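A.,

Following up on our hallway conversation. Structure tokens first:
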């Protein structure tokens, strides 16, 4: 059986959080299935980033077009590396680069592609992937064929730690001929902002029901009292009331806090996609038929603008 090939993305000189999770998953699966893990990374940071990973082989692609994601250069090199190693499974993050590369790798390797994968488990000697479809409305279990598959993983839920060590071998490989395609401009993601909502244990999340930017401090005060962070739905970002880094949902971040307090959020599928895996969801909405109540563990049909200051005050009294 061929190795498990993991596409690793680098960030700030190290490995991105998503790729760290992927490597952890690959180690667990590799051990269960008796298959080695091969990590593939691009650019000048690749070697250093993979130096602390206990993988059988670290493949570092170097050369023109590897410093930042280049669809053509990276796809060509990834396909070449994969074809040489003959993987039985290819794991990528469900990131922009991961999704893009997966669509080049799957046909080139003659493997099916399982996207939006939330779980991948060994069952009856094979692998079963759980893929999240239709914006999280449906979970599909698919048994991977023996010939292998390319899988893109949603962030979150990976093992908390992975074994430390160093690669059994480090292979440097050239990216190949320069591309005919010149990228005109890279649009950098917005600055992450002051907080990373994907790491917060408690999120006080506001929707259009907050009604006015002047009411955002009410949510911030409650978040402070709870030791949490303020996040929001998309209309709040579109109105310019909070930065995009705080947006939860399909076109925002996927979060999995211990507590998600949804205030004045209707529960559109695009929002639910980003928060339905929270451990505890408490919804506050003045409309009893709001769909958010379908995923909430607890709910109250009250005016969020009245509840917010009252709750903050109660918490302050409780801790005094
Ligand atoms: C391609 C695409 C991507 C998208 N991506 C995202 C995304 O990433 N994240 C996201 O959130 N949305 C996203 N959307 C938008 C999504 O479809 C919804 O429009 C959005 O989630 C609605 O936000 P909301 O719940 O804040 O607003 P609304 O749907 O307007 O809901 C406001 C809620 O507040 C309640 N309310 C009003 N006043 C009060 C009050 N005083 N007290 C209590 N409750 C009150 C109302 O009853 C209502 O339920 C996307 C849409 C598309 C098409």
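Then the amino acids I'd put at each of the 320 positions:
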């Amino acid at each position: 059986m061929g190795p498990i090939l993991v596409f690793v993305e680098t960030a700030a000189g190290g490995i991105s959080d998503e790729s760290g999770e992927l490597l952890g998953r690959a180690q667990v699966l590799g051990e269960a299935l008796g298959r080695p893990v091969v990590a593939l990374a691009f650019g000048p940071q690749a070697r250093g980033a993979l130096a602390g990973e206990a993988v059988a082989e670290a493949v570092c692609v170097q050369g023109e077009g590897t410093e930042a994601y280049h669809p053509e250069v990276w796809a060509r090199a990834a396909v070449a590396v994969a074809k040489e190693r003959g993987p039985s499974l290819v794991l990528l993050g469900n990131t922009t680069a991961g999704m893009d590369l997966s669509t080049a790798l799957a046909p080139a390797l003659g493997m099916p592609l399982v996207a939006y994968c939330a779980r991948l488990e060994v069952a009856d000697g094979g692998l079963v992937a759980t893929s999240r479809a239709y914006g999280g409305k449906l979970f599909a279990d698919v048994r991977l064929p023996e010939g292998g598959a390319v899988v893109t993983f949603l962030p979150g839920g990976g093992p908390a730690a992975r074994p430390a060590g160093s690669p059994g071998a480090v292979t440097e490989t050239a990216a190949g001929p320069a591309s005919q395609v010149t990228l005109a401009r890279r649009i950098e993601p917005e600055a992450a902002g002051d907080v990373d909502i994907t790491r917060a244990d408690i999120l006080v999340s506001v929707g259009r029901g907050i009604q006015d930017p002047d009411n955002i401090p009410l949510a911030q005060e409650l978040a402070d009292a709870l030791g949490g962070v303020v996040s929001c739905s998309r209309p709040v970002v579109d109105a310019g009331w909070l930065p995009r880094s705080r947006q939860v949902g399909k076109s925002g971040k996927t979060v999995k806090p211990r507590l998600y307090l949804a205030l004045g959020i209707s529960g559109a599928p695009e929002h639910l996609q980003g928060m339905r895996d929270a451990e505890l969801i408490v919804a506050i909405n003045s409309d009893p038929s709001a769909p958010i109540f379908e995923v909430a563990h607890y709910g109250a049909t009250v005016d969020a603008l009245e509840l917010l200051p009252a709750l903050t005050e109660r918490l302050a009294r409780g801790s005094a």
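The pocket of flavin-adenine dinucleotide is lined by residues 207-209, 233-235, 247-252, 264-266, 268, 270-271, 274, 284-287, 290, 303-305 (CB under 6 Å). Curious whether your intuition agrees with the design.

B.
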